[in-house]
Each structure stands twice: as structure tokens, then as C-alpha cells.
Amino acid sequence: MKILAIETSCDETVLALVEGKGGLRRPRFKVLENIVSSQIKIHRPFGGVVPNLAKREHLKNLPILYRQVFANLKSKIRNSKQIQNSKFQIPNVDLITVTVGPGLEPCLWAGINFAKSLAKENKKRIIGGNHLEGHLYSFLLSHKKPIKFPAIGLIVSGGHTILLKMDSLTKWKKVGETRDDAVGEAFDKVARILGLPYPGGPEVEKLARHGKATIDFPRPMITHKNYDFSFSGLKTSVLYYLRNQSPKAISYKLKANIAASFQEAAIDVLIQKTVKAAREFGAETIILGGGVATNKKLRNNLGKETRKLGLELLVPQWKFNTDNAAMIAVASYINCLKGKKYKITAQANLNM
Ligand code: KG4
Ligand code: ZN
């Protein structure tokens, strides 16, 4: 099944062409194209994403990326000796999919309207994609082997922190989520407190490399019996810690120590709860997804804990951690086979 996927839920316009095969038992994917147009430079002066600016950029970028996807394929075909003499034909697309949520409503609409008109013009089937399912399944873009279940899924993004118990790829139960800020949001807010630019997560990680985790910030809800998270109090502790320092004491070194200590506290909570869930539910596998999965400390520490338990950790390939459209193609391939449908309308708070 060849899928054209469109993702515009936040500040990246992304178009992907992905080939899916193997069915629900052994789904495998080949990413033919995944072209990203990032808006970081546009939103940076505002310290965060401005929804209407983002929408304007999506509207401008979508037709450009669409042409680019097919121009790239055309040149690949031309360069291939085997078919040098054959005429170029736009490869058959079996399905068009577009993120319908969760995300910023004006941004979602930009992608949805574009996808709808493409589907109509080309008489193609269109289905809605769930951004969170995309993050959950993004490891499948590089993982080809069978997956052992039960599994624990941990989704860590700018808007969500979710823990799932999965009995199969399509059967899961949410066992915990954040009660206030998402972990990525906490990274972004701490970055702002430390005077770092947007997007804050990668900046906090970079700064943390130059510091030591010497400050004992709280690990919210770490000992609670449930699997919920809370990151708002941790962020406030960072704010108060910095406020209580005399201006003279606020050096680069101190900020680096704060970044390292905050990062360690946030990661400790994520890992401890995930490991606890893996033990309780007898998991064989841990699946990690979402933008915060880019964080090396999180990947490494979770990897260590997973190995101690004799489990397998499945993570997305680097470039598919943050928002992309290939992951939406994967989620929609799976939903298509399962017969799960989302309305093709913007759903800012769509859940999983
Ligand atoms: O999944 P994503 O690209 O978009 C959403 O669906 O939200 O995640 C973006 C979030 C942002 O909060 C960003 O700061 C965070 O992921 N992030 C990181 C890192 N890279 C991105 N957080 C911590 N460390 C990183 N290296
Ligand atoms: Zn995302």
C-alpha cells in the first residue's frame, strides 16, 4: 500500500510517501520521501509557536512540498538505469492520510483542506491520522522484526506524556498520563526560565552536558502507586531555585547544573514509572516515541534499565522522533487494516 501522508499539527509542514506491507502481523515500511519544512526561525523571536503564523506557513509550504516529493521521485526514476527509457508516471498512491489531531486547530485545518482537495482531484481514498498513534508507531519505520507483547508504550512529546499497556499493536490501555504539563512542555518552560531559545528541549539537553546534576529537584509522583505524571511542580522548583540566587551567583556553570539536575529529575520519573509498569504487567518490550525521545540521556538510561530487566527497547530512528509525516502513514496503514476511522475534521484534543 503506497500512502501519501500530510502532517501540519504544529510548526512543521511535512509530506511523506511511504510503502507499507506485511499486514498487522508483521508490518514493514519503506519511506520513499519525508520532506520537512521547519518553522523554527519564524517562531523563535516569539519564544514559542504562534498558531496563525504557523497556519500561514503551512498553507504556503504544502504545495511546494507536494511538488518536491514528486520531483524527487521523478529524478530518482530518471537516474535509475533500469528504467532510464521509461516515461515518468506519478507512482500510484493508494491512500492519502492527514493528521486530524491532536494539535493546533488552525494548523490542522491547513493540512486537512489540502489533503481533501488532493483526494478529490485525484479520486483517492482519504483517512484521518492520529498524531499520538504516529509517535507510538514511529519505531516501525526502522524495525522489521516481530514484536513481543505485552509491551509498555511511553509517549513523550510537547503536549503529552502517556504510558500504555499494549497487548498487541492495536490493542492497548492507557495506564497513566500527565496531570498537568507534558514532559516536553516542562523542558520548553525550563529553557525559557534559563533564557534559552525555542525550541527548548534540545537546548536544555545541550546545556546539561556542561553541568552536573548537583541540585536535588523534586521527582513528582515518583512514589505514587499509580502511573500518572506531574511536571508542573518540578518546573516551578527550577524557577524558585533560580529566583533565590543572587544575580552574582548566576553563572553559566550554575545554569548548566540546573539544566542537568532538572533533566535528571524528569528522566528519573519517566524511567521509574515505565519500569514499574513493565514489571507489574509482565512486559517483554518497551516502546518509546515522541519528540523527547530525542534526548540521549533518556534513551541511554531507559536502555540500561530495560537491559537489566532483560527486555527489548524499541525506539524510533533519530529523524523520526520529532514530528514527521512518515509516522502518520504508519498509523494510518495500521488503522486502515484494522478498520479504525477518524473523522476528517480538526480535533485539537484528539486522544488515543
Ligand atoms: O513530538 P514533538 O516533536 O511534537 C509534539 O507532538 O509535541 O515533541 C516536541 C517536544 C518539545 O517540547 C521539545 O522541546 C521536546 O519535544 N524535545 C526534547 C528534545 N528534543 C525535542 N526534549 C528534551 N530533550 C531533547 N533532546
Ligand atoms: Zn508530535
Q: List bound small molecules.
A: 5'-O-[(R)-(carboxyoxy)(hydroxy)phosphoryl]adenosine, zinc ion
Distance between the termini: 24 Å
Low-pLDDT parts are 82-89
Class from helix and strand fractions: alpha/beta
**Largest sheet, described in full?**
5 strands, mixed
Count of helical segments? 10
Task: Give the beta-strand count.
Answer: 10
Written overview of the protein:
The protein starts with a strand and ends in a 14-residue tail after the last helix. 41% of the residues lie in helices and 19% in strands. α4 packs across α10, α5 packs parallel to α7 (232-243) and α5 (183-193) packs antiparallel against α8. The chain has 352 residues and is of the alpha/beta class. The chain is globular. It has helices at 40-43, 51-79, 105-122, 131-137, 183-193, 200-208, 232-243, 252-280, 296-308, 326-338, and strands at residues 2-7, 12-21, 28-38, 95-101, 125-130, 151-156, 161-166, 172-177, 285-289, 312-314. It has 10 helices and 10 strands. 5'-O-[(R)-(carboxyoxy)(hydroxy)phosphoryl]adenosine (KG4) binds at residues 10, 135, 157-159, 184-185, 187-188, 199-202, 205, 290-292, 294-295, 322-323.
Give the SSE map.
Layout: E1 2-7, E2 12-21, E3 28-38, H1 40-43, H2 51-79, E4 95-101, H3 105-122, E5 125-130, H4 131-137, E6 151-156, E7 161-166, E8 172-177, H5 183-193, H6 200-208, H7 232-243, H8 252-280, E9 285-289, H9 296-308, E10 312-314, H10 326-338
Helix pairs in contact: 2-3, 4-10, 5-6, 5-7, 5-8, 6-8, 7-8, 8-9
The structure holds 5'-O-[(R)-(carboxyoxy)(hydroxy)phosphoryl]adenosine and zinc ion.
5'-O-[(R)-(carboxyoxy)(hydroxy)phosphoryl]adenosine binds at residues 10, 135, 157-159, 184-185, 187-188, 199-202, 205, 290-292, 294-295, 322-323.
